[in-house]
Amino acid sequence: MLLYIGCTLLLACVSILDTSLGEVVFRCPSCAAERQAGCPERRTPCAELVREPGCGCCPVCARQEGETCGVYTARCSTGLRCYPKPGSEVPLQELVQGHGRCGRIHDGESKGSKENGADSAEFLDHSEVSLTEAIPEGRKTNGQRNEAKDLAVIRLRQTEQERQMSKGPKQPHTPEVSKRTRPKPSLCQKQLDQVLEKISMMHIHDEKGPLEFLYTMHMPNCDKQGLYNLKQCKMSVNGQRGECWCVSPSTGKPIPNSPVMRGDPECNLYYNENEDPKNSK
Protein backbone atom coordinates (compact mmCIF):
# COMPACT_ATOMS: atom_id res chain seq x y z
CA MET A 1 0.00 0.00 0.00
CA LEU A 2 1.54 3.21 -1.05
CA LEU A 3 1.52 0.51 0.92
CA TYR A 4 2.42 0.07 -0.46
CA ILE A 5 2.42 2.41 -0.24
CA GLY A 6 -1.38 2.50 -1.97
CA CYS A 7 -2.12 1.49 -2.81
CA THR A 8 -3.30 5.58 -4.33
CA LEU A 9 -8.08 5.06 -5.47
CA LEU A 10 -10.08 5.84 -8.59
CA LEU A 11 -13.70 7.04 -8.94
CA ALA A 12 -15.68 8.12 -11.95
CA CYS A 13 -17.31 10.87 -9.91
CA VAL A 14 -14.00 12.76 -9.75
CA SER A 15 -15.22 14.61 -12.83
CA ILE A 16 -17.60 16.51 -10.53
CA LEU A 17 -14.54 18.22 -9.09
CA ASP A 18 -13.73 19.71 -12.50
CA THR A 19 -10.84 17.32 -12.84
CA SER A 20 -10.25 14.00 -14.51
CA LEU A 21 -8.75 10.81 -13.15
CA GLY A 22 -5.69 11.63 -15.19
CA GLU A 23 -4.71 14.23 -12.57
CA VAL A 24 -1.28 13.61 -11.08
CA VAL A 25 -1.63 12.99 -7.37
CA PHE A 26 1.90 13.06 -6.00
CA ARG A 27 4.30 15.49 -7.66
CA CYS A 28 7.71 13.88 -8.00
CA PRO A 29 10.74 16.17 -8.14
CA SER A 30 12.94 16.07 -11.23
CA CYS A 31 15.85 13.65 -11.24
CA ALA A 32 19.18 15.24 -10.40
CA ALA A 33 22.27 14.17 -12.35
CA GLU A 34 23.85 12.63 -9.26
CA ARG A 35 20.78 10.46 -8.72
CA GLN A 36 20.90 9.17 -12.28
CA ALA A 37 24.65 8.61 -12.00
CA GLY A 38 24.04 6.34 -9.04
CA CYS A 39 21.78 3.97 -10.97
CA PRO A 40 23.07 0.40 -11.29
CA GLU A 41 24.48 -0.65 -14.65
CA ARG A 42 22.10 -2.75 -16.70
CA ARG A 43 23.42 -6.21 -17.53
CA THR A 44 20.50 -7.48 -19.61
CA PRO A 45 19.19 -5.93 -22.83
CA CYS A 46 15.70 -4.43 -22.89
CA ALA A 47 13.26 -3.89 -25.72
CA GLU A 48 12.41 -0.53 -24.11
CA LEU A 49 13.73 1.35 -21.09
CA VAL A 50 11.36 3.34 -18.90
CA ARG A 51 11.65 5.24 -15.65
CA GLU A 52 11.22 2.98 -12.63
CA PRO A 53 7.87 3.12 -10.79
CA GLY A 54 7.16 5.74 -8.17
CA CYS A 55 9.55 8.67 -8.00
CA GLY A 56 12.64 6.66 -8.82
CA CYS A 57 15.11 7.90 -11.41
CA CYS A 58 16.75 4.72 -12.66
CA PRO A 59 15.79 3.10 -15.98
CA VAL A 60 14.16 -0.33 -15.92
CA CYS A 61 12.85 -2.70 -18.56
CA ALA A 62 9.28 -1.98 -19.64
CA ARG A 63 6.76 -4.78 -19.23
CA GLN A 64 5.74 -6.39 -22.50
CA GLU A 65 2.31 -7.52 -23.70
CA GLY A 66 0.94 -10.31 -21.52
CA GLU A 67 3.32 -9.69 -18.61
CA THR A 68 2.02 -8.91 -15.13
CA CYS A 69 1.87 -5.28 -14.05
CA GLY A 70 0.44 -2.92 -11.46
CA VAL A 71 0.77 0.38 -9.63
CA TYR A 72 4.14 -0.51 -8.13
CA THR A 73 5.67 -2.49 -11.02
CA ALA A 74 7.59 -1.28 -14.04
CA ARG A 75 5.47 0.46 -16.66
CA CYS A 76 4.04 -1.30 -19.67
CA SER A 77 5.75 -0.75 -23.00
CA THR A 78 4.69 1.98 -25.43
CA GLY A 79 1.21 1.35 -26.81
CA LEU A 80 0.26 -0.87 -23.86
CA ARG A 81 -1.68 -0.32 -20.67
CA CYS A 82 -2.06 -2.30 -17.49
CA TYR A 83 -5.49 -3.93 -17.25
CA PRO A 84 -7.10 -6.06 -14.52
CA LYS A 85 -8.72 -9.36 -15.46
CA PRO A 86 -11.91 -8.90 -17.50
CA GLY A 87 -14.96 -8.96 -15.26
CA SER A 88 -12.97 -8.71 -12.05
CA GLU A 89 -14.97 -7.59 -9.01
CA VAL A 90 -11.92 -5.89 -7.51
CA PRO A 91 -10.03 -4.39 -10.48
CA LEU A 92 -8.38 -1.71 -8.39
CA GLN A 93 -7.12 -4.25 -5.91
CA GLU A 94 -5.58 -6.30 -8.71
CA LEU A 95 -3.71 -3.27 -10.02
CA VAL A 96 -2.43 -2.31 -6.57
CA GLN A 97 -1.24 -5.86 -5.93
CA GLY A 98 0.47 -6.15 -9.32
CA HIS A 99 -1.88 -8.79 -10.76
CA GLY A 100 -2.82 -6.86 -13.89
CA ARG A 101 -1.67 -7.68 -17.42
CA CYS A 102 -0.12 -5.43 -20.05
CA GLY A 103 -2.41 -5.24 -23.06
CA ARG A 104 -2.85 -3.11 -26.14
CA ILE A 105 -4.76 0.14 -25.66
CA HIS A 106 -8.36 -0.27 -26.73
CA ASP A 107 -9.60 1.77 -29.69
CA GLY A 108 -10.57 5.28 -28.66
CA GLU A 109 -9.63 4.68 -25.03
CA SER A 110 -6.68 7.05 -24.83
CA LYS A 111 -8.71 10.00 -26.08
CA GLY A 112 -11.86 9.06 -24.26
CA SER A 113 -10.18 8.58 -20.92
CA LYS A 114 -8.93 12.15 -20.96
CA GLU A 115 -11.98 13.87 -22.41
CA ASN A 116 -14.67 11.95 -20.57
CA GLY A 117 -12.91 11.12 -17.31
CA ALA A 118 -13.19 7.36 -17.87
CA ASP A 119 -13.10 5.17 -14.77
CA SER A 120 -9.41 4.38 -14.45
CA ALA A 121 -10.18 1.41 -12.23
CA GLU A 122 -10.63 -0.29 -15.61
CA PHE A 123 -6.96 0.21 -16.54
CA LEU A 124 -3.73 1.70 -15.26
CA ASP A 125 -1.79 4.19 -17.34
CA HIS A 126 1.36 5.01 -15.37
CA SER A 127 1.80 8.24 -17.26
CA GLU A 128 -1.60 9.45 -16.09
CA VAL A 129 -2.88 7.80 -12.92
CA SER A 130 0.12 6.37 -11.09
CA LEU A 131 -0.08 7.31 -7.43
CA THR A 132 3.50 8.57 -7.42
CA GLU A 133 4.00 9.68 -11.00
CA ALA A 134 6.06 12.71 -11.95
CA ILE A 135 4.65 15.71 -13.75
CA PRO A 136 5.89 15.73 -17.35
CA GLU A 137 8.48 18.42 -17.98
CA GLY A 138 6.99 21.65 -19.23
CA ARG A 139 3.59 21.03 -17.67
CA LYS A 140 2.48 24.06 -15.70
CA THR A 141 0.46 23.95 -12.52
CA ASN A 142 -2.07 26.38 -11.13
CA GLY A 143 -0.84 26.72 -7.58
CA GLN A 144 -3.32 26.17 -4.80
CA ARG A 145 -6.19 25.34 -7.15
CA ASN A 146 -4.40 22.26 -8.48
CA GLU A 147 -3.24 21.31 -4.99
CA ALA A 148 -6.84 21.37 -3.78
CA LYS A 149 -7.90 19.22 -6.71
CA ASP A 150 -5.05 16.81 -6.05
CA LEU A 151 -6.02 16.45 -2.41
CA ALA A 152 -9.64 15.80 -3.39
CA VAL A 153 -8.50 13.08 -5.79
CA ILE A 154 -6.38 11.51 -3.02
CA ARG A 155 -9.32 11.43 -0.66
CA LEU A 156 -11.63 9.87 -3.22
CA ARG A 157 -9.08 7.34 -4.38
CA GLN A 158 -8.15 6.25 -0.88
CA THR A 159 -11.83 5.90 0.02
CA GLU A 160 -12.26 3.65 -2.99
CA GLN A 161 -9.13 1.67 -2.02
CA GLU A 162 -10.56 1.11 1.44
CA ARG A 163 -13.95 0.11 0.02
CA GLN A 164 -12.42 -2.37 -2.41
CA MET A 165 -10.12 -3.89 0.21
CA SER A 166 -12.94 -4.45 2.69
CA LYS A 167 -15.38 -5.72 0.07
CA GLY A 168 -16.64 -9.12 1.12
CA PRO A 169 -18.93 -11.81 -0.39
CA LYS A 170 -22.29 -10.61 -1.65
CA GLN A 171 -25.06 -11.00 0.93
CA PRO A 172 -28.77 -10.05 1.02
CA HIS A 173 -28.97 -6.37 1.90
CA THR A 174 -30.88 -6.33 5.19
CA PRO A 175 -29.97 -4.62 8.47
CA GLU A 176 -29.86 -7.96 10.29
CA VAL A 177 -27.53 -9.57 7.76
CA SER A 178 -25.34 -6.47 7.58
CA LYS A 179 -24.76 -6.48 11.33
CA ARG A 180 -24.12 -10.21 11.38
CA THR A 181 -21.75 -10.40 8.38
CA ARG A 182 -19.81 -7.14 8.70
CA PRO A 183 -16.20 -8.25 9.33
CA LYS A 184 -14.25 -6.75 12.18
CA PRO A 185 -11.54 -4.41 10.87
CA SER A 186 -8.04 -5.86 11.03
CA LEU A 187 -5.07 -4.03 12.54
CA CYS A 188 -3.86 -3.11 9.05
CA GLN A 189 -7.26 -1.73 8.09
CA LYS A 190 -7.47 0.24 11.32
CA GLN A 191 -4.05 1.77 10.64
CA LEU A 192 -5.14 2.60 7.11
CA ASP A 193 -8.27 4.26 8.49
CA GLN A 194 -6.14 6.44 10.74
CA VAL A 195 -4.01 7.59 7.81
CA LEU A 196 -7.10 8.32 5.72
CA GLU A 197 -8.55 10.32 8.60
CA LYS A 198 -5.40 12.47 8.72
CA ILE A 199 -5.59 13.03 4.97
CA SER A 200 -9.25 14.02 5.19
CA MET A 201 -8.39 16.66 7.79
CA MET A 202 -5.66 18.29 5.71
CA HIS A 203 -6.13 21.87 4.57
CA ILE A 204 -4.25 24.07 2.14
CA HIS A 205 -2.23 26.42 4.31
CA ASP A 206 0.54 27.66 2.05
CA GLU A 207 1.58 27.75 -1.58
CA LYS A 208 3.07 24.28 -1.45
CA GLY A 209 -0.17 22.78 -0.20
CA PRO A 210 -0.49 19.70 2.01
CA LEU A 211 0.99 17.15 -0.37
CA GLU A 212 4.49 17.41 1.05
CA PHE A 213 3.20 16.01 4.34
CA LEU A 214 2.06 12.89 2.51
CA TYR A 215 5.67 11.88 1.98
CA THR A 216 6.10 11.58 5.75
CA MET A 217 3.07 9.33 6.12
CA HIS A 218 3.30 5.57 5.94
CA MET A 219 0.23 4.06 4.35
CA PRO A 220 0.13 0.38 5.34
CA ASN A 221 0.22 -2.18 2.56
CA CYS A 222 -2.71 -4.50 3.34
CA ASP A 223 -3.66 -7.63 1.41
CA LYS A 224 -7.20 -8.62 0.41
CA GLN A 225 -7.69 -10.44 3.73
CA GLY A 226 -6.82 -7.26 5.61
CA LEU A 227 -3.44 -8.59 6.80
CA TYR A 228 -0.17 -6.73 6.40
CA ASN A 229 1.82 -7.66 3.32
CA LEU A 230 5.23 -9.01 4.30
CA LYS A 231 7.04 -6.12 2.60
CA GLN A 232 6.24 -2.55 3.61
CA CYS A 233 7.87 0.44 1.92
CA LYS A 234 8.07 4.18 2.32
CA MET A 235 7.38 6.46 -0.61
CA SER A 236 10.17 7.39 -3.02
CA VAL A 237 11.36 10.96 -2.45
CA ASN A 238 13.77 13.14 -4.43
CA GLY A 239 14.40 10.37 -6.92
CA GLN A 240 15.55 7.99 -4.19
CA ARG A 241 13.71 4.78 -3.41
CA GLY A 242 11.94 4.60 -0.09
CA GLU A 243 13.16 2.18 2.55
CA CYS A 244 11.52 -1.26 2.68
CA TRP A 245 11.28 -3.63 5.62
CA CYS A 246 9.63 -6.92 6.60
CA VAL A 247 6.69 -7.25 9.00
CA SER A 248 4.50 -9.89 10.55
CA PRO A 249 1.28 -10.21 8.48
CA SER A 250 -0.91 -10.26 11.61
CA THR A 251 0.73 -7.57 13.77
CA GLY A 252 2.60 -5.34 11.31
CA LYS A 253 5.63 -5.39 13.62
CA PRO A 254 9.10 -5.70 12.04
CA ILE A 255 10.42 -9.25 11.73
CA PRO A 256 13.51 -9.63 13.98
CA ASN A 257 16.87 -9.69 12.16
CA SER A 258 15.29 -8.77 8.83
CA PRO A 259 16.98 -5.96 6.86
CA VAL A 260 15.80 -2.42 6.17
CA MET A 261 16.94 -1.37 2.71
CA ARG A 262 16.15 0.63 -0.41
CA GLY A 263 15.19 -2.36 -2.51
CA ASP A 264 13.70 -5.82 -2.03
CA PRO A 265 14.58 -7.20 1.43
CA GLU A 266 13.35 -10.68 0.35
CA CYS A 267 11.03 -10.99 3.31
CA ASN A 268 10.12 -14.60 2.55
CA LEU A 269 13.59 -15.58 3.76
CA TYR A 270 12.95 -14.10 7.21
CA TYR A 271 9.30 -14.96 7.79
CA ASN A 272 8.46 -18.12 9.70
CA GLU A 273 4.72 -18.76 9.55
CA ASN A 274 4.86 -20.95 12.66
CA GLU A 275 6.32 -18.09 14.69
CA ASP A 276 3.58 -15.65 13.70
CA PRO A 277 1.48 -14.78 16.80
CA LYS A 278 -1.73 -15.50 14.90
CA ASN A 279 -0.62 -19.04 14.04
CA SER A 280 1.03 -19.88 17.34
CA LYS A 281 -2.16 -19.74 19.39
Automatic annotation (TrEMBL):
GO BP terms, alphabetized: regulation of insulin-like growth factor receptor signaling pathway
Compartments where located: Secreted
UniProt superkingdom: Eukaryota
Region of interest (Disordered), residue spans: 103-125, 159-188
Signal peptide feature range: 1-22
Domain Thyroglobulin type-1: 185-267
Skewed-composition ranges (Basic and acidic residues): 104-125
Protein name (record): Insulin-like growth factor-binding protein 2
